[in-house]
Amino acid sequence: MGIFSRTKDVQQADIEALLSSSNDPLKTARLIINEMEDTLVEARSTAVRTLARKKEIQRRMDDLQNQAEDWEKKAALAIEKDREDLARGALAVKLRVEQERVQIAELLPPVEVELEKLDTDLADLRVKLAEARSRHRLLALQSATATARKDVRGALASDKSGVALDVLARDVDRLGAEAEAYDLGKAKLEDQFAQLERADAVETELSRLRGKLNNKNEGT
User: Fold this and answer.
1) Rounded mean pLDDT of 150-154?
2) Burial of residue 39 (number of CB atoms within 10 Å: 0-12, 13-18, 19+)
3) Secondary structure class of 179 (helix, strand, coil)
4) For the chain, where are the E strands, in sequence order?
5) pLDDT, tens only, 116-138
6) Which of 108, 110, 182, 104 is nearest to 142 (CA)?
7) What is the pLDDT of residues 11-30, one digit of tens each?
């Protein structure tokens, strides 16, 4: 059985909690990524089908609109030729076509709502997948660092040469630094958006104040 049973589970997943409760966080991170990638593929397939349905509806609506316009032209031609019987027939067909178009148009709003939901779901899935991949890379680095440190202890126990130990120690330091670097300057996506919103709010307030001062100066 997989970690997630539905798309909503992926969107609401607390990756840190899942990894913290796992006996093998690195393996769990890989499983999370695999399931998220599968869910993303399924969501994209659903979006493709929904988009195709929307285009089909719009194409049918356009076709019916063209038919209605064509029958109106036919009715106008019949009137010009003093054939009101043909004009009435043409207009009757036009009304029937327009009614069908109205019925088809009623199918469009639910499809558009579904597309908006899919758009949100796909965006959430991409964010979660990026988060899971980042955590997997960090865990892999930490695992490599732990392995290197174990090798250093083994080398010390077996009395290896000092030069080899220095090289190995530097490799361990580098791996540790790389692992720590993943956390440096790492701001949550929500924080970044919050910063953008605060910046926009400041700019809006600045524009308002400038406008107020300009109006005051113009008044004097």
Assistant:
1) 60
2) buried
3) helix
4) none
5) 999 888 888 888 888 888 888 88
6) 182
7) 556 677 777 777 777 788 88
Q: How many CB atoms lie within 10 A of CB 157?
A: 8
DSSP codes, 96-135: HHHHHHHHHHTTHHHHHHHHHHHHHHHHHHHHHHHHHHHH
214's tokens: 């300009």
What residue has token string 């701001």?
187
What's the CA gap between 148 and 112, in Å, rounded? 54
Residue 105 in contact with residue 61, Cβ under 8 Å? yes
Q: Which two tokens stand for residue 207?
A: 């524009």
Nearest to 54 by CA among 101, 124, 113, 102: 113
Q: Are 72 and 92 in contact (CB under 8 A)?
A: no
Exposed / middle / buried, residue 60 (Cβ in 10 Å: 0-12, 13-18, 19+):
middle
